Amino acid sequence: MGLFARIMRMFRAGTGAALDKVENPEMVLQQTIRDMRDRVPDLNNSVAQVMATERLLAKNKERLSEQVVDLDSKIKASVKMGRDDIATAYIGQLQQAQLDLEKTSAQYEHSMMASKQALKARDNYVLQMQKRTAEAMQLISASKQAKLQEQLAQTMETFNIGDDASTFNEMREKIDRRVAAAEAKLQLGSSSVDAQMQDIEREAMDIQLQDKLHEYKQNMGMLGSGSNAGGKQIAANSQVPDEITLDEVLLEDSKEK
Questions:
Q1: Considering only CA atoms, which of 108, 103, 95 is closest in space to residue 68?
Q2: Residue 228 is part of which domain span?
Q3: What are the φ and ψ backbone dihedral angles of 211, each rounded to 5 degrees?
Q4: Handedness of CA 8, 13, 18, 23 (dihedral sign)
């Protein structure tokens, strides 16, 4: 093998490998579909021309048939009138019209067959185009699925390497530290002096309310003769009658306040 042939083989091999890397199967299939669809208008135009020729020949055939009938009538009329010279001339025209009619009829038959074949070829092409389009769409879908699987495989490889996993772990630790710090601050805030003072104030208010309730019961004689010093002091100072009502006690309490 010569040096030039070897160089050409290496060039073709390198070019083919580069094209394989650059070539996108989806784009190639989509372009193929577009090319097939672009041929349909040209096929329609060709079929239309064949059908137009058929219709033109059909009209010529009809016209020649009428001409043959007309010339035949004129020949018969000329013979009846004794005008053999005119009848002879019409006979010549009739023979030429009959020859033209035979040729036109043959051409019309061929044009009819050509029209049918053209329509059949166009329909077959459309069917093949639809079939190829469906196959191309399936291949494009498979190509997209393969691309997605490749991306997922690359992602899983990244996870296996551990870069993203370590990032997730770091972020998880930071979030856990922030949550722990926030919980600790909340616990410190709930056990602060202000919170304790609020608890004491609530307890003192409860004691005052209980004392006031006890005072009402004592004034209303509901506790009997107990040894409550506060009750005795209130009885000695105010000397509340035994028949005092709850409304009067409330009124008196409001006045004291």
A1: 95
A2: 197-256
A3: -65, -40
A4: positive
**pLDDT digit string (tens) for 136-173?**
888 878 877 777 777 777 766 665 555 555 676 777 88
Q: Which conformational region is residue 19 in: left (phi greater than 0), alpha (psi within -120 to 50 degrees), or beta?
A: alpha
Q: Are residues 26 and 147 in the same domain?
A: yes
165 is written with which tokens? 């996993």
Longest CA–CA span in the chain (Å) reads 173
pLDDT band at 107 (very low <50, low <70, confident <90, very high): very high
Helices (H), the chain: 3-22, 25-80, 84-161, 163-190, 193-219, 229-238, 246-256
Residue 143 carries which side chain, given as an amino acid letter? S
| 3-class secondary structure, 81 | coil
Are 117 and 8 in a shared domain?
Answer: yes
| Same structural domain, 45 and 133 | yes
